[in-house]
Amino acid sequence: MRTALAISLLSVLAAFGAAADTYPQRPITMVVPFAAGGPTDVVARIVAEPMSRALGQQVVIENVTGAGGTTGITRASQASPDGYTIMMGHMGTHGAAPALFKGLKYDPAKSFDPIGLAAGTPIVIVAKKSLPAENLKGFIEALKTGGASMNQAHAGVGSVSHSTGVLFDSLVGAKPTLVVYRGTGPALNDLVAGQVDFMTDQIVNVAPQITGGTIKAYAIATPERSPSLPDVPTTKEAGLPEYEVSAWNAVFAPKGLPADVRAKLVAALDTALKDPSAKKRILELGGTVPKEAEAGPDALQKLVESEVARWTPVLRSAVDANP
Ligand code: MLT
């Protein structure tokens, strides 16, 4: 009896050890909680390729959209914590969402094993090309005068474009009509086509359209100009210094990963961010690559906790001011 128990215990331990040693044995799904072609998807695809090479298995992107990214993140958070489902979260899903969703089915600080920050993504105030205002001050005037006739695109309540957008509206006293999309990829198509008037979006999505001249950029909400958009003034230069916001994208796994599996994912992301072509692409699009102190799971855990604490009061009062 004792021998049988010992043998079965040994085989369980051997199976567990073997799984960790040999991980990964099949493709890994990276859930992107927004539409293909938008900023989260762009960053995910940039890091997925070198991560696949580092892991020796394909990291396959699955776009699961809805509810400002919380549908995909909820689903991924409930997947088995075996390393075969990971996700690209961001400042919205893991920072802003708790302020805006009463029944959020995950806790950004408790339901995940953080893997690491993937990119920092400054926010740019962009508008359709045909808007007559030539600078941020003129745009804000037009926005206030236009009221609900002005259409502001965003990627769903709690997303980056929504939270940074309502913050912008409450700061300048604007009350535009909010138009929701499954991501700012499709929203950008409509902005280029002139179907919506403006949005606040992550630079990695809009930089190519700004340089290509198909949309306007009124300001970038960072202390310094971006090397990718040297002609776009900062919000401070453009007369709205109180609007300084930046977003970020980061890789998470469902809580409870075996330690070896987690270490392999952390190492693969680290390798991906050192990959010269991945790094170049992020920088070309105006994103930032995490500095040493910002990289890895511990820094990401701290970032999530501080972002939830920072965004909760700000967003609650912005939404109360502009329901
Ligand atoms: C957002 O606003 O949260 C993002 O732009 C979503 C996306 O990746 O489309």
Task: Report on this structure.
With 323 residues, the chain is of the alpha/beta class. It folds into 2 domains: 2-120 and 248-319, D-Maltodextrin-Binding Protein, domain 2 (3-Layer(aba) Sandwich), CATH 3.40.190; 123-245, Periplasmic binding protein-like II (D-Maltodextrin-Binding Protein, domain 2, 3-Layer(aba) Sandwich). Helix content is 46%, strand content 19%. It contains 11 helices and 9 strands. The strands form 2 sheets. Strands 1, 2, 3, 4, 7, 8 and 9 form a 7-stranded mixed sheet that branches. Strands 5-6 form a two-stranded parallel ribbon. Helix 2 (39-55) links the parallel strand 1 (28-32) and strand 2 (59-63). Helix 4 (92-100) packs parallel to helix 11 (297-321) and helix 6 packs across helix 11. It is globular and about 60 Å long. The termini are far apart. Residues 1-18 have low confidence and may be disordered. The structure holds D-malate. The site of D-malate has 17 residues, from helix 2, helix 6, helix 7 and strand 7.
Compile the SSE list and pairings.
Elements: H1 2-22, E1 28-32, H2 39-55, E2 59-63, H3 70-77, E3 85-90, H4 92-100, E4 112-128, H5 136-146, E5 151-154, H6 160-172, E6 177-180, H7 184-192, E7 198-202, H8 203-211, E8 215-220, E9 246-254, H9 259-274, H10 276-284, H11 297-321
Parallel strand pairs: 1-2, 1-3, 5-6
Antiparallel strand pairs: 3-9, 4-7, 4-8, 4-9
Helix pairs in contact: 2-9, 4-11, 6-11
D-malate binds at residues 34-35, 38-41, 69, 92, 155, 159-161, 183-185, 201-202.
